[in-house]
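Troubleshooting log. The previous structure file for this entry was overwritten by mistake, so regenerating from the original sequence record. Sequence copied from the archived sheet and checked twice against the printout by T.R.
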Amino acid sequence: MSKLKVRNLTLGTGQPKVCVSLIASNFEELFAEALRISKMDCDVIEWRADYFMYVNDISFMRKAAYFIRYAIEDKPLIFTFRTLDEGGGQDIEIPYYFELNRYMVHTGLVDIIDLELAKLVDNETDVVQYAKKNNVKVLLSAHDFEQTPSQSELTETIFDMRHMGADLCKMAVMPHSMSDVLDILSSANHIQEEREEIPFVLVGMGEIGRLTRLTGELFGSVLTFASSGKYESAPGQMKIPELRQGLDIIGKKNEGALFGEEKSR
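Regenerated output below.
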């Protein structure tokens, strides 16, 4: 499993780190939610700016980012504007999409920016290079709320993200059967075995996909997303205590070496 250092946290060691999305429409709710989530048993916080009503005012966005950073202290912060095409709360013009992400890098208040792969494929921008130059990690993402692509498509998309400069690669897809779940897990296992230098997140959404949220320690995903208890940023997210319990049960892949042997005391 590849490692990625973000602030004082290292993704890719032990269990996948738990991320909770911060969703709020106005300043009052934003600050209250940031304080509430900061006290939860999560490792990373994602600000879903596509739900924020002032997203088109760049000066307000800096204020909002400052409030969040103050509230969450030293926890790593992902900045995400998720477009409607990929399950987001609203749309903005493409030039502003890149300007906004570039500005969030400039503030020095966020640690990772989430950019949709499709937007980079269809538009020229230097925002990836700009982020790297300013020591902000780049998460490239792709979402399919209709289906699960083939195992080879999942794998190649992750490889393409890495080729385009992603520090962290994320795909979230919709399984409709356990065969789809197995394709997701098989792809994840292939990536961690063949390209162990790639930090990635490969997850199945919805009820059927829940297993994929728990198996990162076995199959290589370095991050998993939990519900805040108030909002779910994607279908199938579990509350943190439930998720932590599942990670404890399914993980610990090295313990099998002690099966049938007496543990040293």
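Strands lie at 4-6, 9-11, 17-22, 44-48, 77-80, 112-116, 137-144, 168-173, 200-204, 223-226. Archived copy saved in two places this time.
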